[in-house]
Write a structure and sequence with these properties.
alpha+beta, 5-stranded mixed beta sheet
Length: 140
């Protein structure tokens, strides 16, 4: 499992991309056709015409990465050509690579406690206490 920096953005190239090239071709595509900065740590995701091959291009302090995933069966659900790039969250990228159709999923609304006066804006974890014989009996 790869993790990316908290400020890394994910850009998905709509339509199909000729993925026969490697680092240099995708670097040029990002810089010249999309107007992006290939060396700033953002992730760029590309798919072939058959939608069974993904390439993710990104840069970290050690150099360029080009990750490839080919499906043995099936295809990825990919946006039709329109806007040249679509912005995704890292979570959406993980779902896409895992084979989920992002158009058929939606985030669920859930309750989060409001921050207490004077407390940090991030709420504390709401993990229930571990089960012990005392609170198991109280729950019955």
């Amino acid at each position: 499992m790869f993790t990316f920096g908290g400020n890394a953005r994910v850009f998905l190239a709509t339509g199909s991309t000729d993925l026969r090239g490697g680092f240099n071709r995708l670097h040029a595509l990002i810089a010249h056709e999309f107007g992006g900065q290939p060396l700033n740590g953002d992730l760029y995701v590309f798919a072939n015409r058959r939608r069974d091959l993904l390439k993710i291009f990104f840069y970290d302090a050690g150099g360029l990465w080009l990750c490839t995933k080919r499906l043995e069966t099936g295809t990825y659900r990919w946006p039709a050509p329109g806007a040249r790039l679509v912005t995704l969250t890292p979570t959406e990228l993980q779902l896409l690579v895992s084979g989920l159709d992002l158009t058929a999923t939606r985030p669920r609304a859930w309750w989060t406690p409001p921050p207490a006066p004077g407390a940090a804006a991030t709420p504390a974890a709401t993990t229930p206490p571990p089960a012990t014989p005392g609170n198991l009996a109280a729950a019955r």
